[in-house]
Each structure stands twice: as C-alpha cells, then as structure tokens.
Amino acid sequence: MTVLDGYVPVIDLSGARSGDPQRRVEVARTIDEVCRTSGFLVVVGHGVPESVISEMYRATREFFALPIEEKNKLLADPADPLMRGFGRKGSLAASNADASVPQERALPDISETYTYNRLGEPTAVDALPADADPRLRTANRWPELPGFSEAYRAYYAAMETLATEIMRLFALGLNLPEHWFDDKIDQHMTNLTANYYPPQPVAPLPGQLRKGVHSDWGSLTILYQDEAPGGLQVLDRANDTWLDVPVVEGSFVINIGDLMARWTNEAWVSTVHRVTNPSRAQAHTERYSMPFFHQPNYDALIECIPTCTGPDNPPKYAPVRSGEYITGKFRRAYGD
Ligand SMILES: O=C(O)CCC(=O)C(=O)O
Ligand SMILES: [Fe+2]
C-alpha cells in the first residue's frame, strides 16, 4: 500500500480490493486515522475505468458551454427539495450552523451547477417511505446532448460501487462488521453535482469565492476535480491554515460530511473547505469539479454508531432520519 503522508494523504485502494483480508484491514485502519484528523484523503487504485470518467467530463463541458438560455431551460424547480437540474444561485456556506444566511446569500458562490439524483429516475419509485415528500421524486432534467444521460448514468453507477466499497472500509475502520452500512445505503439518495467555475473577467466582490467556506452534509463525498488555478482548499484546524488539496491524475478526493461526523459521535471530523478564485493574472481560466454527495437511504436512522460510544462518551446527538436531515440542509442553504 502506498500512502503519501500529509493532512490530505494519498491512499492506494488497490490493496483493499486485492482480496487479501489483511491488506483490507490495513487500508481501513489508515482511513480511520485520516477521518479522525482531516476527514480528507485522495484515493488512487479505485477501479473506476478511465473512460467512464472522461465521458462524464466531456459531457459536463459540453453542457456548461451551452448558451445560458439553454441551461436556464433546465433550471431546478424551486419546489424540488434536492435541486435537480441547472443550479439556482446560492451559497453552500449558508448551511453552516453559525452562518448568517442573508449575509451568505448576498455573496453567492461564483459557480454554476448541474445535479442528478437516482430518485428522479422512473425506476427508483420504491426508494422512499410513504411519509416522504413526494417532490423528492422530481424527474431529472436532461439536456438534449448526445450521450449526456448515458455518461451521467454510467458515472453515477461507478460512484455507487465505489461509495459502497468505501462505506465497507469505513465499517472495518470503525470496528464494525464489514457490511454494517449495506442495508442503510442500498436505497441511497445521492446527488451527483457538476460544478462549473467560469472565468472571472470582473473581479469578485470582497469575500466572494467560487465556493464559500462550508462542510459537506452527507456520509461521504467522492470528488473528481480537474487541474486548474483557483482550486480546492481545506482548513487545517490545528494550524489555522488553508491547504491546497493535491491534484493527482486519475484520483478522487474523498471527504466525510456532517452526517458521518454525527453518526460517529464526532470521532470523525467533517472538515470545512472552500474553492478559491484564480489570481487576476489567471482570471481567464475555468475549472470543473464533480462531487458525488453520498447520502444514506431516506429512512436510515442516523444514531450514534455502537463502537463510537461508551460509559464516558455518551451520544451527543438525537437520532435523525437521513432524508429529513439532508432536506433540512437544502432548505437552509437555498430555501425561501
Ligand atoms: O470544486 C471543488 O473542488 C469542491 C466543491 C465543493 O466543495 C462542493 O461542491 O461541495
Ligand atoms: Fe464541499
């Protein structure tokens, strides 16, 4: 196993996927350690075919290159709790527990987004309990671009496989049976979002960023990022400094979200991050990233994991259902 050290280490998953249980546990132990410090890692050896990634990237670039009138035709329905389609303006940072929502909304993220969710597929109708908001089934909005929906569906399927694999490694790292999370994520409600960060011919307002300081919301995020100026940074809390997340060819950035921090009774940390603006000299450049915001089944009850509590460490949070938790986050960031 190759592990490059650092706050955001590079971890090779091929050892975990080799069929050797000993190597699998070693990788899981390493991941557990990282989740206790930064909650951010870069994975290689993940098994996702290069063609699936490059098709997704090509389709994404074609979509955002469309005239704005075309993109606006797919504008997310304000009633859609998960914001499928072309993104409305807003600020992820507004979802932070201590954020001033009006202040954050006044400085929207300088990005465009496009979001897809399996719950918007006609085949996913059985994935929600009877009391869930029926608008969670809002249909996905597809651009009329050749190969686009195929590329997205194929990429999403590859991310589902990788997320399931990582959740199994998480389980091992947390001293749980390997398949502990399986029945809590088999009807997952994950948003796949493409972020487009356009060139900035006009300088951003003071304090305005490509993505404001935020933490992610769900169980884990799998992010593809291209190499471009004005990139992803994570806060190293111990040293109060912002660190660039390394861009490693063929890799994904993995980070845990608020839900996983809550699930682990804060043994694992959901670290804040941001996307910076390019320098004025590089303001003509653009950037793309694709987070897969893994979110457990709507009715998965997120209550303190048994190995994360003890006599001196009682549960810090009340149980919450995954679906109610995530829709609450959306309302805060983008709602009325
Ligand atoms: O663009 C990136 O690298 C990260 C974006 C991000 O943090 C997010 O969409 O939650
Ligand atoms: Fe994020």
Brief description of this entry?
The protein contains eight helices and 15 strands. It is an alpha+beta fold.
Helix count equals 8
| Biggest sheet details | 9 strands, mixed
Q: Helix proportion of residues, in percent?
A: 25-40%
Computed structural class: alpha+beta
**Radius of gyration, whole Å:** 19 Å
Low-confidence stretches: none
The count of β-strands is 15
Q: Could you explain how this protein is built, in words?
A:
With 336 residues, the chain is an alpha+beta fold. It has a single domain, classed as Jelly Rolls (Sandwich), CATH 2.60.120. 27% of the residues lie in helices and 19% in strands. The chain is built from eight helices and 15 strands. It has a nine-stranded mixed beta sheet. The protein has a four-stranded antiparallel beta sheet with strand order 7-12-9-10, with no helix packed on it. Strands 14-15 form a two-stranded antiparallel ribbon. α1 (21-37) packs across α5 (148-173) and α2 (50-64) crosses α5. The longest helix has 26 residues, at 148-173. It is globular and about 55 Å long. The N and C termini lie far apart (48 Å). Pathway: Antibiotic biosynthesis. This is Oxidoreductase.
